[in-house]
Every structure is written in C-alpha cells, then in structure tokens.
Amino acid sequence: MAFDVIKTVFLAFPKGFYTSIKHVFKKPVTLQYPRVREEMARRYRGKHYLEMYDDGTERCVCCGLCAAACPADAIYMEPAENEKGERYAKLYEINLLRCIYCGFCEEACPEEAIFLGHEYEFSDDNRDSFIYTKEQMLANRPKKEKRFKRIIRKVRRIF
Amino acid sequence: MITTGFIIASAIKVIVVVVAVLTGCAYATWLERKLVGHIQHRIGPNLAGPFGLLQPIADAIKLAFKEDIVPERAERVTYALAPIVAFIPAMLSFAVIPFGDTITIMGQQIDMVISDLNIGILYIFAITSLGVYGIVLAGWSSGSKYSLLGGIRSSAQMISYEIAYGLSIIGVLIIAQTLSMKELVAQQANFFDWFIFRQPLGFVLFVICAIAETNRSPFDMPEAESELVGGYHTEYSSLRFAMFFIGEYANMITVAAVVTTIFLGGWQGPLLPPVVWFCIKVFLFMAFYVWIRGTLPRVRYDQLMNLGWKVLFPLALLNVVVTALIYRL
C-alpha cells in the first residue's frame, strides 16, 4: 500500500505533469472552421448536382434509373419530350432530408448526368427548402469540373 | 505616527493593489483557458483582440448584462449576502503581502506593502478561512439540493484542510521566528535561504492544502460540474455569480502571493525591480495551478478526506516535530 503511494507520487505524477506540459508545445489541432476549411476528400459525397453537355443542354434523359436505385426513395421525376423528340426531365426533385448520400444514383446513371458534389453546408429552417429542384441542381454544378470525377467517368465508360 | 503623506501613500497603494488584483483575476481566467487549451491541443480564446487578450473584458460585459435571478425558495437576505462574504475576504488578505522593497519618495519612507502587520501570517489565515462562510451560506440559502450538497462538501473540505494548511507553515515559523511577512522576505535574501529549500515538505503540504482551500482542481469537489451541476453557485447568475468567480480567482492569486512570500523569496531577485520579480513568481505559480488542473483528475470525496486527515495532517505534524528538533534543540 505504502509502496503504491510512493510509486504514484514519485513516478506517476512527474510522468503526468511531463505529458501535459509536452502537449503545450505541440501544434493545436483546431481548425478555425468558418474561416479555414478543410479540403474534402475527392470521393466525398455531398449535395447533388446535374451535369450538362458542353453546348448547355442537360445530360439527364429522365430514364428513372436513379430513382429506382435510390434506397431512400428520395428522387422524384416526371419526363417530357422537347420539339426534337428528345426526352428530358420536366420535373426532377431530390429530397435531401430523405437522401442518405450513398451515391447509388451517381452509379446508376447511364448518361453521367447526376453527381454528388463536395458541398455539405445546406442547413435551413424549413423542410420544404430541402426539396431541391432541377434548376437548383444544375446551378449547383462546380465551375471547373473536378478532374477526379472525369477519371471516374472514363473508368466507368470502359467497364 | 500617522502623517498626511502616510495616508496618501496608503490610499494609493490600496487602489493600485485592488486594481491590480482585479485585473489579475480577469487575466487569470484568460491564462487558464489559454493554457488548458494548449494542453489539450486546442487554441483557447483567440478572437477578441490579439491572442484573445480582450476576452476577459468581453466576458465581464456579458456577465454584467445577464439577468439577475433569485430563486423562489431562496432565503433572500442570505442569498444576497453570500457572494459578498465570499468576495471580500479574498480581496482583504492581500493587505499584508509585501510586493516590493522599501522606497523613498520625497523624503518619505514607503513600504511596498499596504500594512506590515506583525502577525501577517495569522491575519491571512484568519481572513481566508472566512471565505468558507460565503460558500456555505450560498449553498444553504439557494434552496436547491445541489447547491446545498456543494456547500456542505466545501465546508467539510475547507475545514479539514485548514488544519494541515496551518500546520504546514509552522515549520517556517519555527525557523524564521517571526509572523511578519516583511521579515520573512528579508530572511530569504540569498537564493538558498528560500524556505522552499529549507522546508521542502512544508512547501509541498502547503501547496496541496492551498489548492484544496481554494477549491481548485483536483480538489474542486464543491463545484464539481459533472456531479453537482456547479455546486454552491448553481442558482446564481449575473454579477452575483461574477463575485464568486472573482473571489475564487482572487483567492488563487492570494495563495500564489502567499506561497511566493513565504517559500519563494518574495520580491527578492537579481537585476529586475522587486515588483517585477514578485509578479513573475506569482504568474509562474498561477501557471502551475493551471498545469495541475490540466493534468490531474478530480479525486473522489472519500479520497479527499482520507488524504487530508490520514496523510497530510500526520505529515504536517511530523514536519513540525522534525523541524523543531533540528533547529531549536
């Protein structure tokens, strides 16, 4: 018993004090969040965006595969045809409150139209504003296409 | 012999010391948050001013504008009185701490101490012991079970540690043969005359008891957040709470100053002016306080009592006997 006390006082205490003072001189791990942001992982799955062709027409043909693949049943779409007889999505909505960000829609899409981007800050005080429409998701497209997504796309074309 | 010059000098000293201690309290919170933050790999306050130096001011303003709540079941008079009782002794005990050498201004000898009582140490012990009343009354008058538990714990703790606290200093007094703080500092002119070297056991005991007396981690039983929701000051808000808060930090500064004076040679030191040396030593001891908080976990209540009565008290007695045998036989 007495031996334990001596061990605590003369071994454990100095060790503890040394440990805590050691950490004062290490670099803090704090990220000053709103001002400093961490680069998201390249495969990170955040808010969806819809891709376009270079001439500005939508890639999405409203085939419904994404909606079929969606395990959370978050995607709703209504098809229509334009004057050239091409199918497009008249209505394309994703309920981000239902979405589980699994990325199955991205994988199911035969036209490489839908992708999950890197954006993760979309809080709101109103449930309705979490139902994102086609226009919002087209506008959501990253300005410069991420190279990594392009590589994924090429790999997917091969298989 | 009380002259006008003496009165003016005393008044100035009182104002300077009170302002310095209050500012010290404010920046002790800053030091604590910053240092504990870095111990835990965090940054601590850094947004208000450079290095977060304006954070204490922001906190003070925030506290002052909070609503002052008095619980329905509180004993109103006692409830209002308790923060004052806790706050005032903490400020009073600084009156006998010498923070510099005697200086001469306009032919007037001025001691750098508010009042050089010949029983300075006894005065400090008497005054700091009063602080427990504030805590007990606060706990009792809040009309809340958590506050009451906190108050009871703290009274038991402070009274238990009072004995070892007092005894640990006896060794120094046996050697020094004086109770005056000024005399004590004068006897530590050489580095190796510091009482920390002549009374190492007394120093350790005194520091442990002082931490328990000021209710600081790892002996912060009375206010253990995770167990008592804040302890005796659960029901307090606004400036009443601020008084407890300032009182606690003022107590810490007082203890740091007392340790500096009794064991660490007071204001003595080479090259720099005495006041600067005093401040450096107090600052280092405050940092040590925070360092302890960042290292040791809170002890259990029964461990606390066992430590006080079964370890510290006998050791303090032993220290007294051994010191007496060595120095006065």
Summarize the structure in words.
The complex is a heterodimer of chains A (159) and B (329). Chain A is α+β, with helices and mostly antiparallel strands and 159 residues long. Helix content of chain A is 32%, strand content 15%. Chain A has five helices and five strands. Chain B has one domain (69-328). A two-stranded antiparallel ribbon of chain B has the order 1-2. In chain B, helix 1 (4-39) packs parallel to helix 11 (274-295). Chains A and B meet through helix 1 of A and helix 1 and helix 11 of B.
Produce a short descriptive summary.
The complex is a heterodimer of chains A (159) and B (329). With 159 residues, chain A is of the alpha+beta class. Chain A contains five helices and five strands, in the order αβαββαββαα.
CATH fold group of the domain at 48-158 in chain A: Alpha-Beta Plaits
Can you list the strand order of the major beta sheet of chain A? Answer: 2-3-5
Could you report the average pLDDT of chain A, rounded to the nearest whole number?
84
DSSP strand (E) fraction of chain A? 15-25%
What's the count of strands of chain A?
Answer: 5
- Give the end-to-end Cα distance of chain A, rounded to a whole number of Å: 70 Å
The biggest sheet of chain B amounts to:
2 strands, antiparallel
